Structure formats: C-alpha cells, structure tokens
Amino acid sequence: xxxxxxxxxxxxxxxxxxxxxxxxxxxxxxxxxxxxxxxxxxxxxxxxxxxxxxxxxxxxxxxxxxxxxxxxxxxxxxxxxxxxxxxxxxxxxxxxxxxxxxxxxxxxxxxxxxxxxxxxxxxxxxxxxxxxxxxxxxxxxxxxxxxxxxxxxxxxxxxxxxxxxxxxxxxxxxxxxxxxxxxxxxxxxxxxxxxxxxxxxxxxxxxxxxxxxxxxxxxxxxxxxxxxxxxxxxxxxxxxxxxxxxxxxxxxxxxxxxxxxxxxxxxxxxxxxxxxxxxxxxxxxxxxxxxxxxxxxxxxxxxxxxxxxxxxxxxxxxxxxxxxxxxxxxxxxxxxxxxxxxxxxxxxxxxxxxxxxxxxxxxxxxxxxxxxxxxxxxxxxxxxxxxxxxxxxxxxxxxxxxxxxxxxxxxxxxxxxxxxxxxxxxxxxxxxxxxxxxxx
Length: 440
Fold this sequence. Notes:
Elements: H1 2-6, E1 11-14, E2 25-31, E3 36-43, H2 45-53, E4 65-68, H3 76-93, H4 101-132, H5 136-164, H6 173-183, H7 186-195, H8 206-215, H9 219-226, H10 235-245, H11 258-277, H12 285-295, H13 298-303, H14 305-308, H15 311-322, H16 336-341, H17 350-359, H18 363-373, H19 378-389, H20 395-420, H21 424-433
Antiparallel strand pairs: 1-2, 2-3, 3-4
Helix pairs in contact: 3-4, 3-19, 3-21, 4-5, 5-6, 5-17, 6-15, 7-8, 8-9, 8-12, 9-10, 10-12, 11-12, 17-18, 18-19, 19-20, 20-21
C-alpha cells in the first residue's frame, strides 16, 4: 500500500450530474495523512463562467471538508491505550545496549509483555462498554475494535516468540503451544458442549473435543475427557491413555538436553507406531485416529483440518508430532502443504499474510503488511520500535522500503492523536525519541 500511495494522483476528481440550473458542481479530493481526504468543490469551466457573471453574493462559498475512515484510535478507551503505552515507550528508549545478550532478551520480553498487558486492558474496557451500551451502532463499533485488538495481540505475541524470546537451544514448540492454547479456544467450547450431556460420550462434540485437545498438545485435557467414557477401563482405552500420559513435552525446566529429549521422544513415537501397526485400536476407530495423530501421519491432519481451524495451527500441530524440537527459522519450510490443505494461497486473508511473513522471518514484510492492512498505526509504530531495540530491524532499510508514507501515515498520525488528547508532552517525547532515519 505504501508504494501504491506513492504512485497515486495528487487530486481525485469526483464528477456529479448537472443540477436543476444546468450547472456542473463537481468535487475534488486530495490525500491527507493516512486514511484522510480533503474534499472541496470543483466546478467545471462553464460553471465557473456562470459564477463570474453573477453578483458576488450569489457565488457559492467554497469549503474544505476533512474525511477520515478507520478512526479506531479516536475513542476515549483507545486514547487511554495511547497514553499508557507511552510510558512503556519512554522506558524502552532508556534501555541500555551495554548489558549482555541474555539479560537484554529477558528485559525486552518484559517490555513486550507490558505492551500486551495494555492491549488486554483495552480489550477488557471495550468489552465492558459493549455490555453497557444499548446503542446498536456503538456496540458494533466496540465489537470491531475488540476484534482488531485481539488480532493485534495475536500477531504481537507471535512476534515476541519468534524474534524476541530467548529460547533454550532454539526450541520453540512449547511457546507455540501456549500461543495456540490462549488464542484459539475452540477445544474448550467443544468440551463445554459435550459436558452438557448427561453422558458426554453420546454428544456429537465429544470426539471432536478430544481430537482438538490432542492437536493442540493438551493431552491432559484429552485424557480427562476419555476418562468419562463408559469403556475407559478396557484394554484399548487403557492403551491410548498410556501413550498420551507418556508423551514427552520439551520444556526449559525439563532438565534434558535437546538431544536427550529427541531420543526419548522418538522411542515414544516408535511405540505409538508399533501399537497402531499391531491393530491395537482396529475396533475403536476414534482411538485409532488419536494414535494416527500421535504418529504424525500426514493424512490425519488433512482429515481434521476443520479442527485445526487455520493453516498455521496445522503447521504447529504437525511439527508437534513430527519434529517437536524444530527451530523457529525452520518452520517456514513446512508451511505450503498446510496452506494447500486450506485451499491454497488464493484463500489467504490479511491475517494469514502477516503470520506467513512472520513464520518466514520476513520482519520487514510483517511491518509492511501491518501498516497497509491494519486500520490503525499503533501496532506498526510500537512493534517497529521494539524490534529495533531487539536488533532485529534495520530502520533505514525499512524506511527505504516503505518510503516516507509509512512515517507520515503512522508516526505523524500518532502525533496527531497525541494532540487530540492534549498530550503535548507526549507528542514531543515521541518525536525526540524517533531514530534520525525516520525523521529525515
């Protein structure tokens, strides 16, 4: 969008049909900052001649109208977000580069989580406003803002895992599983539906809930649901429960090296494959499906793609059961088959493109897509600053890629909103802290 805006015409003509007097009073519009147009009358040459022949008092008074859209940051709640996040912004500018890398990463994660805490507080305030209003249009506006900030928090937390978090041995799976668990709650909803039945196993949601828990690596929750089945004490149920119970999960505090964990995990999965090949679950197709997930069979993930919900959740689920020690940078090499399972690249939406760029470690594209597609500047401005302090972003390269439009549409908009808040000190602080390459 940045490059498109650079190539746009300076003025936009908006013709109108002649009025009852045969006069053609058109409009013109000029781009302002970000999502802003200045609209004003633009009569034709013939109409201007008629005006000249009229007495001065009969000539229309030209007015300039400001038109804005996607004004998410104008509400009192989002203004509060701007103010509170500025405190984190100021503290981050004072953050020294002389400390060692480990401590540096730890502190940067804390800054990132402070931003996310502000976001979550904003979402809570918006949800409270939804419950407290009876005006339907206002309620829809608040709901749209909730959805926007939930998307922003989703992207931000993924960037935190990929680009900022200090991961032991580079292993990323345990953090990705937490990311999926907290942002994609369909398994919880399926479980609740199943538990509403007197006999949960008779619910149409029962097995889908179990599959969903297993796909997210939540084997404890899956075992709890299996324990409600009337056949829980049979050999087949006892066998699958044992496999779930013994499934190794790598964590920083596990005390195992990556090599030791990998050896333990492969031994466990060989046991899963052996029981599957021996037909231990042949008479219980639902348990057989669970065992196929544990064995990492490709087709079972395609068959259950609806429960994965998105291609990027499928990427995580497949790696959990095929390569749980995968490094963050290697995720990108296994993305395309999962995208294809969800209809191919033509089906990718805005959020898909941003997450795709993140998983490919294309940070500049993450910023570019976010700047172009998300309807406010807040995320792009602050995640750029955070990644710059993490040493992951070359602002001169970014500024060259996005041109001055990015700075104008987002940083300048930040200063504009600060003025709306009468936070003149905030405006000055932000401008003074910006890197030179972004203010030239």
